[in-house]
Specification:
alpha+beta; Helix Hairpins; Heat Shock Protein 90; 3 domains; 5-stranded mixed beta sheet; 9 helices; transferase; cell membrane
Length: about 375
């Protein structure tokens, strides 16, 4: 409230109190002046203070002080009343301004607002921001759901259409001989395997994203786990004439985690390196310890990934190959990211000078 407004209210209240008290006093004097009856107590009071007449009592310092005190009290009452009216009017006015600002979706100027309204306006702005964020998250979730349905429908339909096509040839005896029949059967089997892999990946991904999923924590030796995986992938790598090079800076690299999930994480990274980096003829596997973090890198020397695609590599169904000519499900890296984050770690990719590296960082266990 502006100081000038307070001064005006105070003067107005004092004047109203003066007029009110003066009017009441004149009325009382006019009523009692000619017919005042003094009781014994009143007479004793007058005698005690040395006053012989009633009119002297009215003009005594005591009565003058009482009169001004009464006037001040009445003025204070009027001040409180006028101040309350002013605040109520100002409050209604500023509430209408806030309402208009909300309806027009415009910010308010806080300089002209009283503190209570400023706090209310700030709370409303926070609520609006929170509501807008919730709406944005809901829209993103809905869009992600729609994208998931679209991608799943596409990736399920493609192998299923091929399976039905080849099975129709077999069902209608449209093959020339047993060799062609076997060829169709192998194609159907391959498509069915891809379909099965996609369904498994979808199940794993949704399970990892669920809030009800809990990982099992066991002490894992990452170097030993990586060596086991390399042994498993030596044959498929040899079939593609790819050499796997192991580089371990430490022999003891312990982390707490779910062994099955960690194994799945690096299986996905190994498979990705073989699928997209086979042309480089080499895959590097390295492990080291740095500042309490286990750092494992899986590198391939295939086609370089454009910088614009790197941030989206771990999105579900994202493929650098926009024409979908590759055989992956598009969920492997998304699953890998979910597993790493469930273990309190971080995963990212870099690609430059013909070398693409996927780096996994996991907290080391000191146990």
């Amino acid at each position: 409230m502006h100081p000038l407004q307070i001064i005006v209210l105070a003067v107005l209240s004092w004047f109203a109190g003066f007029v009110t008290l003066r009017s009441i006093g004149l009325w009382l004097v006019s009523v009692t002046q000619d017919s005042v009856v003094l009781t014994g107590t009143t007479k004793s009071f007058i005698d005690l203070f040395g006053y012989g007449r009633y009119d002297k009592l009215l003009n005594s310092p005591w009565m003058i002080m009482l009169k001004y005190l009464g006037m001040t009290g009445v003025a204070l009452v009027f001040f409180i009343f006028f101040y309350w009216l002013f605040k109520q009017n100002l409050l209604r006015k500023q509430l209408r301004q806030i309402n208009d600002a909300i309806l027009q979706d415009q910010p308010m100027e806080q300089e002209s607002l009283i503190p209570e309204i400023v706090q209310l306006e700030e709370s409303i702005e926070k609520m609006r921001g929170h509501q807008a964020e919730l709406i944005k998250q809901e829209q993103e979730a809905q869009q992600a759901k729609n994208d998931l349905i679209t991608n799943v429908s596409h990736d399920l339909r493609t192998p299923l259409t091929s399976i039905l096509g080849y099975l129709s040839y077999i069902h209608e005896d449209r093959y020339r001989d047993e060799v062609e029949l076997r060829h169709y059967t192998e194609l159907v089997y391959g498509k069915a395997q891809r379909l099965h892999k996609l369904i498994d990946d979808l199940f794993d991904y949704t399970r990892l994203e669920s809030t009800e999923f809990h990982i099992k924590e066991d002490m894992l030796d990452m170097v030993e786990l990586l060596r086991q995986l390399v042994a498993e992938y030596e044959r498929p790598a040899a079939e593609k004439e790819v050499r796997i090079v192991e580089m371990y800076a430490v022999e003891n690299l312990k982390v707490m985690g779910d062994g099955m999930q960690i194994m799945r994480l690096f299986e996905n990274l190994f498979s990705n390196a073989l699928r997209y980096g086979a042309s480089g003829k080499k895959i590097d596997i390295s492990a080291k310890k740095e500042a309490g973090v286990a750092i494992i890198e899986v590198s391939n020397y295939g086609a370089e990934i454009p910088a614009g695609d790197l941030p989206q590599l771990f999105d579900r169904f994202y493929k650098v190959d926009k024409n979908r000519t590759t055989t992956g499900t598009g969920l492997g890296l998304a699953i890998a990211k979910s597993i790493v984050e469930r273990h309190g770690g971080h995963v990212f990719a870099t690609s430059k000078k013909g070398k693409t590296t996927f780096t996994v960082q996991l907290p080391i266990s000191e146990g």
